Amino acid sequence: MSKIPKAFGEILNMLLKPCEFNIDECIEKFSNIPELESTLIQILNYNSKLNREILSLKDAVLYLGAKNTRIIAIAYITRLLLPNRNGRAGKNGIQQFF
Known about the structure:
Blueprint lengths: L5 H10 L7 H8 L3 H14 L9 H25 L10 H6 L1
Helix pairs in contact: 1-4, 2-4, 3-4
């Protein structure tokens, strides 16, 4: 089973208090989990009808807000932990999920 990175828990704790968290510190924590960072940006660019492309994690978090960022992060980690059709958890099933 995949391990949950320590930074993930720290990110969730920060996002639970959206009025109090420091976005730069939050972005720094996200950068410790590159797969989550790229997934967040890919989801936004694939599903959004913005007139511009989201290029950075900071843009993504600012656009989504703390609550929506937290929801996507939880979905990401849940998919990472749940087994796929072959009975294995891991990164391979994440792209199919999103």
